[in-house]
Design brief:
The protein is α/β, with parallel strands linked by helices and about 325 residues long. Helix content is about 50%, strand content about 10%. The chain has 14 helices and five strands. Strands 2-1-3-4-5 form a five-stranded parallel beta sheet, with helices on both faces. Strand 3 (about 150-155), helix 7 (about 160-170) and strand 4 (about 175-180) form a beta-alpha-beta unit. Helix 12 crosses helix 13 (about 290-300). The protein is globular, with a radius of gyration of 22 Å. About 45% of the residues are buried.
């Protein structure tokens, strides 16, 4: 898809918009950073990065409220959909792609949409981020419902693809979250749950893959991870829903069962064999003294929450 030809007037308008954004601000005190020793540049950059967690901390109440709302919808079968362009879109795709192996989410349960589609993961797709229409089409292809959640991600908070995705999702009755790195953004205004993590100007002017990208990654980590905790995808801090798809993860599965139960290697192997390698089921077999089919039934009745299944078995 190509964008409409830009006019001098539209270019001037965009430049005017960018000049008002904190993430685009020029820092004259860094104007000769290229003259510094490499270790000094690294020290400056590390100092900049260290400010990001504090900026995220200021938004914890908004993040928690969004998580609770997302988890409630996902518990009813809804999906979590990220939508963004460029770095923001790539971060959403990354977070979505890591949910199946970490939390054994079903295919399509967590989705990352990037303006321009898969090719945009590795290269720029001309005009894609400027198209709200493309965002609507991408969401319509998912047959979005009112049980779904759409998280628009944009450092500037003005990217038409992200804003368009949130506006369209909200019109369809879906839950919406707007994650931006500038105050008073259009993305936040469009979303039911605005999250604006204001990290300030970048070390390299306008390079929002730096502090803004780090902030977005931290928030997306929270949104997906805490949602999965709320959905019973962990037992304490153990990934009991991990999908053992390779040797490393199979070894991790055995270790998780050991940490959760204190069982010896032989007991763990028997429990995993009885549950087709399902970690959560194996833990229930060992802690509740039930067989594989009973463990599966108890977990199904408890909505996949291991603690609730254990309580039911004890009762």
């Amino acid at each position: 898809m190509t964008s409409a030809p830009r006019t001098p007037h539209s270019d001037a308008d965009l430049r005017s918009q960018l000049e008002t954004l904190a993430t685009e601000a020029f820092r004259p005190e860094l104007a000769e950073i290229d003259r510094l020793d490499t270790v000094e540049i690294a020290r400056l950059m590390n100092g900049e990065d260290a400010t990001v967690p504090a900026a995220v901390a200021e938004r914890l109440p908004e993040i928690a409220a969004a998580v609770d709302a997302v988890a409630a919808r996902m518990a009813r079968g809804g999906r979590l959909v990220y939508a963004g362009a460029g770095t923001a879109g790539r971060l959403g795709v990354l977070d979505a792609s890591e949910c199946p192996p970490t939390f054994n989410t079903a295919p399509g349960q967590v989705v990352g949409l990037i303006a321009g589609g898969p090719p945009a993961m590795v290269t720029s797709v001309e005009g894609a981020e400027d198209s709200a229409e493309l965002a609507r089409a991408d969401l319509d292809a998912l047959a979005l419902t009112a049980e779904d959640t759409v998280v628009g991600v944009s450092a500037s908070g003005r990217t038409p693809y992200a804003v368009g995705a949130v506006a369209h999702a909200r019109a369809l009755g879906a839950l919406t979250v707007g994650l931006a790195c500038n105050p008073g953004s259009a993305l936040a205004a469009a979303a039911e749950h605005p999250i604006e993590v204001v990290v300030g100007p970048e070390l390299v002017t306008g390079s929002t893959r730096l502090k803004a990208g780090t902030a977005q990654k931290l928030v997306l980590n929270m949104l997906s991870t805490i949602t999965m905790i709320r959905l019973g995808k962990t037992y304490g801090n153990l990934m009991v829903d991990v999908r053992a798809s390779n040797e490393k993860l199979r070894a991790r599965s055995r270790r998780i069962v050991a940490l959760a139960t204190g069982a010896d290697d032989a007991e763990i192997e028997r429990a995993l064999a009885a549950t087709d390698g399902e970690v959560k089921n194996a833990v229930l077999v060992l802690l509740a003294g039930v067989d594989g089919p009973a463990a599966a039934r108890l977990l199904a009745e408890s909505g996949g929450h291991l603690r609730a299944a254990l309580a039911s078995a004890d009762g």
